[in-house]
Write a structure and sequence with these properties.
The structure is a homodimer. Chain A is an alpha/beta fold. Chain A has 2 domains: 49 residues, Nicotinate-nucleotide-dimethylbenzimidazole phosphoribosyltransferase (CobT), small domain (5,6-Dimethylbenzimidazole Phosphoribosyltransferase, Chain: A, domain 1); 269 residues, Nicotinate-nucleotide-dimethylbenzimidazole phosphoribosyltransferase (CobT), large domain (Rossmann fold). The first copy, chain A, has 14 helices and 6 strands. Chain A has a 6-stranded parallel sheet, with helices on both faces. In chain A, α11 links the parallel β5 and β6. The two termini of chain A are 35 Å apart. At the A-B interface, α2, α3, α4 and α13 of A face α2, α3, α4 and α13 of B.
């Protein structure tokens, strides 16, 4: 991101009728979106959240509180506009696009679904690699293609989201592989499993890491061996948004695992990332620190889908409007500081 | 607030297509607005921020970085729609009403300004009481009347805001009087004064408290002796919203001083308050703890006017929409937990 544009945007903000810096992070949002977009007047009309959906072979190990049939059921719920991300995106003036990267279900061309299925779910990583390297690359490309499409359509801001029963398990595995933090310390209850199931989940992840030995220096290897198809697509969207100069708002735990893969591949993508959420989880905190992103919201949300991204996009857009719409001291005839 | 309605709202939320509690504080917002409004389907179309404006005699002591002429200049900026609160309220679909409770300026019926002037500013509290008790009561009534008007108009949610050069000084004085925390610990730089000016501001507040001896057990006495006309109106709005069953979103430092006065008068008003902002200031933290409110946002904003309330109202409305618009497991044909 161009440092001169960042300065130019801050100079514009400093002429607005307010004490210097008094709009805090809203000023950061406006400044960064301007610099990323290459204009002092970004048009934020078009905003899109991509909810990437995939299934996970590792659910065979009983790592989730929900049966995996819920993935396609929730996909239909999203297509009908009834899921959390639909409600919050509508509220924020954001479009939701649901992309099938790897659900284990035949949708027969269901209306509104973007069909980019790479495989019917990953394989069980407790017994072997989750994907082939070609599958991981194909799933990355799904996200990159969506970013290219955003550029073509003039989308001002993209958000990430995901749908996939069991996907906190590969996310924790990715963090463990890259950070070296113990699986026990960074594995949590996902959407609500009990003590016994949590112990099982930890065992499954430890087994998968010991068996597959992902190379922490090779993010694509980590993604291939213990990742997920929708996580790969999120990584691709982040890479593609950075390449196309589009701000990308990263949702919660699972999305951040995708963004982590992207930023391990190309550290420059960090300049394009906005982190929607804070989390109490040690694994999420590690990722945000590694990416260098300060979360925007802390509302104890843990639904995924892109729900946090939707709310954060509304706040980022507010920062852009401060840059564009607030009157200057001169315009308003207001005296500056003594 | 009716505990049964709170339970009823949570039961409704628990049937939505999401893991239990996974929308975190959004569920709290939806639940509380429903219980306060007395309906499971609150209509949030009409939302209003009241920016109460007043001047402060204590600016004679050089406590602010801006000359007091900036109060009416900013009032005109707001009436023209160019101030921060206008931009952020437009973004959130919120109307801004500017109420003159005590500006030291003759507006001659300026278009859009609600003229409820009680006095042309307070007196310098470093030399005597800021107001008479009758003035404090009249200014409280200004806020109460706005809340009554909200009820008549069907306003779903009210927000507080303020405009008044110098008004962090009476706010700090109010907190010191009620909390017993030392003036030095809770006085900050307001909109940006230097070290010498900060030392002066502390001296002025200490002098005012020593001279006026406000009774910490009598919030009206505190308000009268070291408060502000706009702070009194904010307290009145909070009281009036609670009386009328309207959720009230309290902006930052100065607004919270008003809400603190209200909650010291009637502890029950706490059930109706949403705190927009976090703050690093010890005084603000004290007030929020005393009121029992957990701030919604932490974006390092310190402009006032109602800017934080505008953003927080957008998030609270999002919580209401979750309650109203999300599909249930049954509607969506989604399997519940295993």
């Amino acid at each position: 991101v161009n440092a001169e544009l960042l300065q130019q945007a801050q100079a514009k903000l400093d002429n607005k009728t307010k004490p210097l810096g008094s709009l805090g992070r809203l000023e950061e949002f406006g400044r960064r979106v301007a610099a990323i977009s290459g204009t002092m007047n970004p048009d934020t009309t078009k905003k899109v959240i991509f909810t990437f959906a995939g299934d996970h072979g590792v659910t065979d190990e009983g790592v989730s509180a929900f049966p995996k049939e819920v993935t396609p059921q929730m996909a239909f719920n999203m297509l009908a506009g009834g899921a959390g991300v639909n409600v919050l995106a509508r509220h924020a003036g954001v479009e939701v696009r649901l992309v099938d990267v790897g659900m284990d279900y035949d949708f027969n061309g269901a209306l509104g679904l973007i069909d980019r299925k790479v495989a019917r779910g990953t394989k069980n990583f407790a017994k072997g690699p989750a994907m082939t390297r070609d599958q991981a690359l194909a799933a990355l490309k799904v996200g990159i293609d969506q970013a290219d499409q955003c550029k073509a359509e003039g989308v001002a801001m993209a958000g990430t989201g995901e749908l996939g029963i069991g996907n906190t398990t590969p996310s924790s595995a990715i963090i463990a592989a890259i950070s070296g933090i113990s699986v026990k310390d960074l594995t949590h209850r996902g959407t609500g499993i009990n003590d016994a199931a949590l112990a099982n989940k930890i065992r499954v992840i430890e087994q998968g890491l010991a068996l597959n030995r992902p190379d922490p220096k090779d993010p694509l290897d980590v993604l291939t061996k213990v990742g997920g198809l929708e996580i790969a697509a999120i990584a691709g969207l982040v890479l593609g948004c950075a390449a196309n100069g589009i701000p990308v708002v990263v949702d919660g735990f699972i999305s951040t695992a995708g963004a982590l893969i992207a930023s391990e591949m190309h550290p420059n993508v960090r300049d394009y990332i906005f982190a929607a959420h804070a989390s109490v989880e040690i694994g999420h905190r590690f990722m945000l620190e590694r990416i260098g992103a300060t979360p925007i919201l802390d509302l104890n949300m843990r639904l995924g889908e892109g729900t946090g991204a939707a709310l954060a996009m509304g706040l980022i857009e507010a920062g852009v409007k401060v840059l564009k719409e607030m009157a200057t001291f001169e315009q308003a005839g207001v005296a500056e500081q003594l």
